[in-house]
């Protein structure tokens, strides 16, 4: 089929031509005297994206899941007790990896579509009078349900309980797209991957840690191998890695950081909020609803859209792909067949979104959902007309 297919999944996201060109280069010597210039610049420029001046960033050839493991095994004692809030597929996977690593995992189960409840975290920590819980693990932006949780409120609940546990935050679909402040919010470790807000192919796991978390790395007795931060720290301090890095991806990350700096992080965050508002206006015009229970907590990077009773969301996704050249995100686990997801993060503008919304309308009509042609597109246009871009 002629033309370019549209990618509206919540990751991998569209890769800008600038980043593609930056990665398209001959292989080079990762032990050369010039290599530290690239590496040190990346580490320094990752810090403001995570909202830290005192923390430290790490980059692994991995994914976000690998960074979960890295944060846990480098800071916690073997068999340590951890508290995990489970409210979607990715928070479920966070809990699962804690269990598989042998940690005593206490789970707070929350209805899918709801945000993390700070009061339940506070209650669990207050009940832990011996301070056995060593970490609280939460997902900032639950990609499976399109819900963003209030991390400052979670930290406030932990502080109110006067509990010393570390706060670990999955920021995979939030970092470089939504506001994130590791220092100001009291986050001890946050993770992401290259394929979301950084607008790159998958392949790099990125981790940022607070001084409090870093202080535990040297003394941790948890068995560690590839994800051991000690050799990483030693090598990174000299501008190198303890293994062969993915040099093309590092150059892509360098270009992504340049693009984020040029647009400005506040503008990046505002753009994602504006695009999300247009998508939500379209969903309302279609007569559909979001999975997010609280509109105030609806994600600005992905909208999880419930299909009407009797309509299999998998059919909407299949038809959108096969007939209309648009990739949509699927419902995961208990949400399979109940919702489809529109990812609106990374390298996107209004006109790209409008093309995706038009295709979704056709796919919905193809499977029998009565939506008026152009209704969602017009609603999005109306939202953006009422909320114009800030003057350059």
Please give a structural write-up.
With 392 residues, this protein is an alpha/beta fold. The chain has two domains: 245 residues, Aspartate Aminotransferase, domain 2 (3-Layer(aba) Sandwich), CATH 3.40.640; 123 residues, Aspartate Aminotransferase, domain 1 (Alpha-Beta Complex). The chain contains 13 helices and 14 strands. The strands form three sheets. The chain has a seven-stranded mixed beta sheet with strand order 2-10-9-8-5-3-4, with helices on both faces. The chain has a five-stranded mixed beta sheet with strand order 1-13-14-12-11, with helices on both faces. β6 and β7 form a beta hairpin. α1 packs antiparallel against α9 and α5 packs parallel to α6.
């Amino acid at each position: 089929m002629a033309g370019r297919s549209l990618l509206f999944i919540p990751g991998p996201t569209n890769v800008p031509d600038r980043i593609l060109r930056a990665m398209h280069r001959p292989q080079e010597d990762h032990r050369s005297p010039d290599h530290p210039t690239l590496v040190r610049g990346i580490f320094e420029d990752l810090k403001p994206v995570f909202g830290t001046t005192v923390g430290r960033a790490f980059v692994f050839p991995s994914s976000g899941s690998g960074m979960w493991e890295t944060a846990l095994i480098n800071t916690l004692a073997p068999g340590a007790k951890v508290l995990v809030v489970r409210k979607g597929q990715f928070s479920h996977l966070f809990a699962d990896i804690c269990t598989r690593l042998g940690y005593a995992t206490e789970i707070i189960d929350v209805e899918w579509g709801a945000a993390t409840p700070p009061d339940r975290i506070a209650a669990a920590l207050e009940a832990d009078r011996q301070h056995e819980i060593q970490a609280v693990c939460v997902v900032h932006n639950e990609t499976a349900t399109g819900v963003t949780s209030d991390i400052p409120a979670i930290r406030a609940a932990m502080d109110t309980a006067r509990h010393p546990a570390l706060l670990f935050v999955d920021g995979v679909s939030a970092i470089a797209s939504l506001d994130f402040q590791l220092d100001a919010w009291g986050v001890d470790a946050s993770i992401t991957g290259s394929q979301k807000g950084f607008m790159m192919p998958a392949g790099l796991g990125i981790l940022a840690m607070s001084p409090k978390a870093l202080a535990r790395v040297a003394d941790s007795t948890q068995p560690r191998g590839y994800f051991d931060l000690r050799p990483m720290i030693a090598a990174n301090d000299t501008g190198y890695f303890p293994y062969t890095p993915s040099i093309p991806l590092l150059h892509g990350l360098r270009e992504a950081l340049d693009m984020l700096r040029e647009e400005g992080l506040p503008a990046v965050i505002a753009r994602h909020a504006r695009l999300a508002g247009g998508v939500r206006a379209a969903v309302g015009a279609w007569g559909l609803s979001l999975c997010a229970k609280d509109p105030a907590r609806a994600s600005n990077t992905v909208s999880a859209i419930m299909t009407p009773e009797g309509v299999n969301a998998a059919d909407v996704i299949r038809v959108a792909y096969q007939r209309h050249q648009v990739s949509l995100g699927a419902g995961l686990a208990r949400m399979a067949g109940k919702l489809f997801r529109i990812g609106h993060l990374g390298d996107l503008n209004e006109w790209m979104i409008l093309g995706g919304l038009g295709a979704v309308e056709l796919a919905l009509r193809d499977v029998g959902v009565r939506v008026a042609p152009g209704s969602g597109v017009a609603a999005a246009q109306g939202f953006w007309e009422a909320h114009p871009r800030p003057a350059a």
